[in-house]
Amino acid sequence: MAPQILVVEDNEQNLVLMRDILTYHGYAVLTARNGEEGVRLAREERPDLILMDMQMPVLDGFTAVNILRRDPGLHGLKIIAVTSFAMAGDKEKALQAGCDDYLSKPVDILELRATVKKHLGEGKADGE
Ligand code: MN
Fold first, then answer.
1. Were both Cys, which of 2, 92, 117, 125 would link to 28 (CB 3.0–4.6 Å)?
2. How far is the CA of 96 from the centre of ligand 1 (A)?
3. How far does residue 62's CA lie from ligand 1's centre (Å)?
4. What does the alpha-carbon distance between residue 8 and residue 38 come to, in Å, rounded to a whole number?
């Protein structure tokens, strides 16, 4: 089975971009549009990795990561923060909150793929 990724992002354009790229590279992708929905889906579906926007309504990424990191049922879950380039200090904050890595917005397609591959391995093998 393909590794499963949950993309949590309130900006529709970014959400669709990340979903489409990851789907193209053979990952199974779930989406959520705020931190609360993201936490709920993470618990229900137990993805292998989460791409977490840090600025979101309802429940922001920092709070969502905090909740997820306290959940013993989600041990081993990889979380990659997606932070606005303009928000200096957010990368460090994200790592301190328990994220494994981070990506800057605007999301670079090659960097997205490389970072996910680093933590998760390939999606479905080429030609499969
Ligand atoms: Mn956002």
1. 2
2. 19
3. 12
4. 6
| Structure-token pair, residue 79 | 């979380």
In angstroms, what is the span from residue 125 Cα to ligand 1's centroid? 32
The 28-32 sheet, strands edge to edge: 28-32, 4-8, 49-53, 78-84, 101-105
Q: Are the CB atoms for 126 and 25 separated by under 8 Å?
A: no
Q: How far is the CA of 11 from the centre of ligand 1 (A)?
A: 6
The pair of structure tokens assigned to 106 is 């605007």
The CA 9 to ligand 1 mean position distance, Å, reads 6
Mean pLDDT of 101-114: 94
| Other beta carbons less than 10 A from residue 26's beta carbon | 14
Residue 125 pLDDT > 80: no
Distance 84 CA to ligand 1 centre (A): 8
